[in-house]
Design brief:
Layout: H1 8-15, E1 22-27, H2 42-51, E2 57-62, H3 71-86, E3 93-94, E4 100-102, H4 105-116, H5 119-122, E5 126-139, E6 142-148, E7 153-158, E8 173-183, H6 190-199, H7 208-211, H8 213-222, E9 243-249, H9 253-262, H10 276-292, H11 298-307
Parallel strand pairs: 1-2, 5-8
Antiparallel strand pairs: 3-7, 4-8, 5-6, 5-7, 6-9
């Protein structure tokens, strides 16, 4: 955790009941992956202590900044150090950022239980994915959400936590679940958005979005309930990738989480809840797409079907 630590007041309660243990990683000198300093208020630690009634939460302090490494390399390094601290062979490792909130963590845990029924699957290196919905901007009466029509999947859990590039693991099998994660992302003040862009692991890239964030903040300023239908995304990398923006009316984050629960997609076909001819087309496309995607072995496909994926 770093400058985003306040969002843990949302993300920790979302998983607390069904998590065996929770470990928060923080740089011992309070530096980001870029080497920039940050601070954490005593009030947050007071809240954390009062909230942790079951003594599940640990804080892991270490040196997570190496000046010779790129920010994304420091990111990957921290994930591996955290995995080592928690015990690489100690069950499922679920890693999420401070501003990533599970909409229904129990359903995700239930998905992991399905996998555990297959000894064969557990012998493989697995990456269990959730479908992300990003809060791109908060407005007085709601917010602008960024979603992907067929699911915006990121790996969040693994049984072999040996990370090769950020969340990714080489030679692993990806399993998509119906679980969703609300990424609070840019749903914050303008100043906080600029700070987030400046401290993200990606901003070493030669990309105007990261090098000149003010250019894109002008687009962010322009976004509202009326203008969002004219955008596919804010970042140019997402323009042609099936993304869409939509306005969602809600009162607070709790209400937004409930709305995300109601709109949970059927992740196994990627088309959401459909009926009639659309459902038939989706079912046919699902069968065809199996031959177009990178093939899994017959045994893996069989075990995934048995497990309900």
């Amino acid at each position: 955790m770093s400058h985003d630590y306040e969002y843990l007041r949302w993300s920790i309660p979302a998983v607390y009941e069904h998590a065996d243990s929770i470990t928060l990683a923080v740089d011992k000198d309070c530096r980001t992956w870029h080497g920039k300093e940050f601070s954490i208020s005593d009030d947050f630690f007071d809240w954390l202590k009062a909230f942790d009634v079951q003594s599940k939460i640990k804080i892991y302090r270490d040196d997570f900044y190496v000046s010779s490494l790129l920010p994304l390399e420091n990111d990957t390094r921290e994930r591996n150090m955290l995995a080592e601290f928690m015990g690489r062979d100690e069950g499922w490792h679920i890693q999420v950022d401070a501003d990533e909130v599970f909409v229904d963590f129990k359903s995700f845990v239930d998905s992991l239980s399905k996998v555990e029924k297959s000894r064969f699957l557990l012998e493989q290196t697995l990456m269990i994915c959730a479908d992300y919905v990003g809060l791109l901007k908060s407005l007085p009466s709601g917010g602008i959400l960024q979603e992907k029509e067929k699911g915006w999947y990121f790996p969040v859990a693994t049984n072999r936590p040996y990370y090769s590039a950020v969340r990714n693991i080489d030679s692993s099998i990806e399993i998509k679940t119906q679980s969703r994660i609300l990424h609070l992302w840019y749903g914050r003040t303008r100043e906080e958005v600029i700070k987030k862009i400046a401290n993200t692991g990606h901003n070493h890239k030669k990309d105007k979005f990261y090098q000149c964030p003010e250019l894109y903040m002008k687009l962010w300023d322009f976004l509202d309930e009326q203008t969002c239908p004219f955008f596919k995304a804010l970042h140019p990398a997402f323009f042609d990738s099936g993304f869409k923006l939509s306005y969602c009316k809600y009162g607070d984050v709790h209400e937004l989480i409930d709305l995300c629960k109601q709109s949970t997609k059927e992740a196994d076909d990627g088309f959401g809840k459909l009926s009639g001819k659309k459902a038939l087309v989706a079912k046919i496309w699902k069968k065809i797409s199996r031959f177009l995607k990178k093939p899994k072995s017959k045994k893996i496909r069989q075990e995934l079907r048995k497990a309900g994926f």
